[in-house]
Amino acid sequence: MVETDVKIVYKRPAGFTDRVTHYCPGCTHGVAHRLIAEVLEEMGELNNTIGVAPVGCAVFAYNYFNFDFVEAAHGRAPAMATGIKRTLPSKTLFTYQGDGDLASMGMGEIVAAAARGEQITVIFINNTNYGMTGGQMAPTTLPGQKTSSSPLGRDVETQGYPIRTAELLATLDGASFVARRSLHDARSIRMAKRALRTAFEVQKHGLGFSMVELLSICPTNWGLNTEDSRKWLAEHMLPYYPVGDFKVSTAVSEMKIGGN
Ligand SMILES: Cc1ncc(C[n+]2csc(CCOP(=O)(O)OP(=O)(O)O)c2C)c(N)n1
Q: How far lies 17's CA from each of 12, 13, 93, 132, 229, in Å?
């Protein structure tokens, strides 16, 4: 046998099962999943977490994480997370929701949960369309963007303007930490991980409602390859959906975070 100096620098996070995901090639749902699994492992929370899966492309998320998960009706994940968290307050609760699930079907749920200051963490995947059902227009679809239900491009005169969900929720007194990050390049992904860590720490410290919006690519429904999708996100999504922290309560700004 040949001796080697090979060191493992990258491996499957402990928070994952060994299932292969059903996501399309290039889709960043897998990146978001990985960041969540890494953060919960680093926080020692894997055995104390309950996730709430959405209706949408991530509907089978419960198959990919090896901790407890429940499945919500479309857009109702914040209500389920609220009930579970109030019943089991020592558990870490998070919802994982797309922009159709959270900002369309579930807009009422998320606004109410944030306004009540529920002690839950929300991971919001913004890929500007309803991915699972064939790429229809979502509340996040950009002006002029072509989708399967806006083939001539979103016309704001008749179809309205996109909703900047993070900014909207940040206006609510019940929200403690609301941020937007992007998953289109390595540096952004590292910054996204730090924001997720902050969001989960907010919950661990009992400081209230936290949400991280993650700008994501959808090569299949955008009709672009992965590389062009990443460029499209940077060119078109970032100007409309700037990354940043939109709400950091005083208590959160004074919070001490371990790890990276
Ligand atoms: C009550 C209800 N309305 C509509 C649908 C159809 N539907 C399933 S997934 C989905 C949208 C999913 O899009 P999004 O939340 O953006 O997630 P993605 O698939 O892009 O990750 C819709 C409209 C449904 N299943 N139930």
A: 9, 9, 19, 22, 28
